TrEMBL record:
GO terms for molecular function: acyltransferase activity. This is Phospholipid/glycerol acyltransferase domain-containing protein. One of its GO terms (cellular component) is membrane. It comes from the Bacteria.
Amino acid sequence: MAAFGDVLEWTKHQVTSRVPKADLDQRDADYIREQLPGLWLLASLYFRADVKGLDRIPKDGPVLLVGNHSGGNLPPDTFVFTLAFCSYFGVERPFYQLAHNLVVSMPGLGSLRKFGTVAANHDNAVLALKSNGALLVYPGGDYEVFRPSWKRHEVDFGGRKGYVKLAREAGVPIVPIASVGGQEAALFLDRGQWLAKLLRVDKMARLKSVPILLAPPWGLAVSDMVPRLPLPTKISIEVQEPIAVDDVQAGDDDAINDRVLASLQSAVDRMAARRRFPILG
């Protein structure tokens, strides 16, 4: 058992050591400016991107954007919202997104860091907000993003509410970002939390889910680490009214978390009711 434990610790070290340190200077406004027209055209045609309510986000200064999350390791909601934010506010406004360690360290995805993507941890989040940036977080993480497709319209952070403490510490408002459509980019069958424990990747790579899904071109797939083609699902996103954390008694994180969840779920229900068909929207 001791030998196995040593192997486990060695593997964990190898994974974490490959995660790039957060360097906000890796965000490249010139690169975003060059890529934005083509990528926004792609998002508009392939995902029929529909983003509303961007005027509800404060025009400047640090802000915590908190969204429900869908689409696995290739989340079209993040792709669409990032492009919409940069188009609306301009590429010069600092904007960052938190992502799982494995996403930011994957070969071939270095361009994400040029768009402002950094590894999801508290220190990186604080750094982004202290730099006067807007920060997009998905508290549900892999728990929410790999939920079965028949639960696609459920907002579920899995009990995670560390983002509230982050907003309090930074003294910034929380703006809920509601989206629908992303969980139709593939057919997600099971979160695979049991499989993550069986394979010990929950210990080695902080990966709590090894999902089982159906997606082109592979058909049935176990895990979402192999590149796949997302289905051309319509992505609809709606920004909600800001929530000021100082409006609620200090220390009552549950009250703020409940308000954020209620805001998101209400918006998701409203948008889902307008959606006639899966994928087609």
